[in-house]
């Protein structure tokens, strides 16, 4: 067991660090609106031109094809340097792209992958429906084959950045299978198609983060189906496992930075119930100490999982443990920020607005992409071998 | 970077688990005998012959020359069986004696001729000079020739023969012997200070965390096994999310405790800058895991978990002893924020 890196990896870290230092945009990333789309695409394009796009993608598709260790190093350095969040680029780079790499036909890949990498397009994800959240396989949005087209009718929801997207990875029901996982297809949908209506939804942190999307006789070429018709569940699952690799390293580094900023804040802000600073409050200092240990535990869990992945080639179900731990800790840290701010926590556009906005944002992390309860099911069933509930 | 045990380390895990299952299984505690904490000479000699007390000690200090990481893997197995604390104490005592250049004491401890217990400070104790003064709990001092007393600034061994006769107290955890004592200027048999003392203190924290991790793992395994076999409402209770999710939380606590303890040991060996924080954090996180998993294990077993004849309560009781070793939780948290 050791924590050291090879000379080659150390050099790579240096290279990544200095490139990031020289190229990170100086202006702040807009959190909302079309300016956000422009910003995210421009930053992706900068990374592409600098040779840093698609670090986990194979070289034949224009990526860097880096080793797992180098992917981790890049993610660490990216977050340490304070580089902009991937934002509206997330689905393209981390979901749709990798799915196409695994399952797409040559013509799909030749057309879409370079555009994703070079920052020309935004992708969104059409998975959840009003009646299909945790029970994703029960989707009803239907697609009927007519000649060489699919005709789609129905609704999707919680689609992040749909209002800014060019393309969508869309799950539709093409037939009623014996089991609900059967009869689903994974389709590339052009968001400019006639019959698509997008209604943005305001979230509790005040952002227009996600949308409802309605489909009224939307025609999609049959050749846009990725994998086989009715085999979309398998295709979708292959993407989800891709996400459970090194995807949380950036979040973990960012959380560690946030916690250290919070400790500083607690040393500076008056405690709300008497003289002295917030840090002098025993309850606050205890929670900060615990969180600092937990942040380090999270880092070590990530390293252990990565060590397993290195040996076995594939991330295991331990990813669910990291997700659960990370999301609870994010909520703890930002919940603590509210208590440290005390009365200041009510001034939502004051100097501490970022803490307050982030606090509200982190309500989403135990819900999106498989709720904490679903993660606990996965841990119980796949890791501990308890009887399946579903 | 790799935090998975290699094949040699796997061997250490397997062979120590086997020895403990044969000689010191947790089932040994299911007895009306009030001195269940005793370890017979033959078993103790067996451990000495296997090289346990010399395992992580450097070769130039007369040890076998493995590292803290191998000690962690061994003590994790010991924690699973609520093993005697005198084993960890003897490992640490041999190190203190070796660093103090007292080779004859090192030989006594490594050979199995002498055992060590722990003099755990209660409240503030005077922390300098060559004598020990203050209130202490002597843990596993029964049958021990030496007692180790660790702090951040000084580590020392006390010769138990220099102490007056002290009556045994009933210990919450029947697997450990307990004595309450006030010491007044007791001369140390040997001592170390400064960076060396601090490094042994940290080692004590990491080894404690390793045992706590083992306890948490044993509780997880018992609870999961029971959830698969106990049937209520015509199903194994592990089918129900209330039980399943409790088990999942136990597994997550184990993963956090185990990963961090191993990380802390490797960071310590590699003298990384985050090693001090990792050591103290490991004790806090593994301590939480040991306590919470012990409690969840009782709950999942229902009334059986509440009985004296079942093993679940031993883990609850041991978790409180471990919590207080070397740095109680309040001190631990202060050290983390420093």
Question: Could you explain the architecture of this structure?
Answer:
The complex is a heterodimer of chains A (390) and B (338). In chain A, 46% of the residues lie in helices and 14% in strands. Chain A has 390 residues and is α+β, with helices and mostly antiparallel strands. In chain A, the strands form two sheets. In chain A, strands 1-4-5-8 form a four-stranded mixed β-sheet. A four-stranded antiparallel β-sheet of chain A has the order 2-3-7-6, with no helix packed on it. The radius of gyration of chain A is 22 Å and the shape is globular. In chain A, helix 4 runs antiparallel to helix 5, helix 8 packs antiparallel against helix 9 (318-341) and helix 9 (318-341) runs antiparallel to helix 11 (372-383). The longest helix of chain A is centred in the C-terminal third of the chain and has 31 residues, at 282-312. The relative contact order of chain A is 0.09. With 338 residues, chain B is α+β, with helices and mostly antiparallel strands. Chain B has a domain at 196-337: Butyryl-CoA Dehydrogenase, subunit A, domain 3, CATH 1.20.140. In chain B, the strands form two sheets. Chain B has a six-stranded mixed β-sheet. Chain B has a two-stranded antiparallel ribbon with strand order 7-8. In chain B, a hairpin with a 2-residue loop joins strand 7 (231-232) and strand 8. The interface between A and B is large, with 47 and 51 residues.
